[in-house]
Amino acid sequence: MTVDASGLGSERHLLERSGTAERVAAILRQYITDGVFAPGERLSEPVISSALGVSRNTLRESFQLLAHERLAVHELNRGVFVRELTTDDIEDLYVVRRATECGALRRAAELPTVDLSGLQRALEDGRAAAEAEDWPAVGTASIHFHQALADLAGSERLSATMRQVLAETRLFFVLNENTREFYEPFLDCHERILRDLRRGRFDAAAVSLDRYLRDAEARLLELSS
C-alpha cells in the first residue's frame, strides 16, 4: 500500500523559505506523528516530491534522515516504507519516554513559571474528539499532550528528541483497533496530570505520568503478542 499524499500540497508554504531535506523530513515526520502515514505504507518518491514541489534528491536526503530516526526503512528494489516496529522497540521506546517526559517535569519544577496552555489545548482537543467518537483523533491529541509536557522543560534539544520519540510511538497505535477502550483512558490520565501541574504538584504529576506510561506499554505489548 502506498501512502495517501494528497494533503501534502497544503504544506508547500512551509518550504518557501527553506526547501532543505531537514524541513521536508519534519513535514513527513509530522504526518507520521498524526497517523496520516501508517506503518508499512510506501513513501512514493514521485508522489511526495510532486506534492511538495521538491526534487527527488532533496526527498531522498529526507528519507535518509527519517531512516536515521528509525521512522522509515529502505527495501531493495521496493522503495522506502514507514517502519513497522517490534515488541523490543516498544519496550526500549518506553524506557526513553519515561526518562524524557518525567525528566522534563523535574526540570519544569525548577523554573519560575511554566505555560500549561499547550496541555490544556491538547486535552480539550481529545475531549472533543472523544465526544465525536473519533478515536484516532483522540490518539493524535494524546501525542500533542505529551509533546507539550516535554516542552515544559524549555529545552529545544529535549523537545526535538520528544518529537522523534512520539513519531515512533504513533507507529505502535496501528496495533489497536481504534476503540474507546484503548483511547478513552488517556483523557482521564491527562486531566489528572494537568490538575497536579496547575497546583504545582510536579512530583505527583511525574508519578502519575510514570504509571500511565507503564500501563500504556503493557497494553501495547499485549496487543502485539
From TrEMBL:
Q: Name one Pfam family in it.
A: FCD
Instruction: Mention one GO molecular function.
Output: DNA binding
Q: Mind listing the UniProt keywords for this protein, alphabetically?
A: DNA-binding, Transcription, Transcription regulation
Which InterPro entries does the annotation name?
GntR_C, TF_FadR/GntR_C, Tscrpt_reg_HTH_GntR, WH-like_DNA-bd_sf, WH_DNA-bd_sf
| Domain HTH gntR-type: start-end pairs | 18-85
The domain of life for this entry's organism is Bacteria
Instruction: Return the CDD domains for the record.
Output: WHTH_GntR
> Is Zinc-finger set as a keyword in this record?
no
- UniProt-listed PROSITE patterns: HTH_GNTR
Full protein name: GntR family transcriptional regulator
Q: What is the organism field in this record? A: Amycolatopsis eburnea
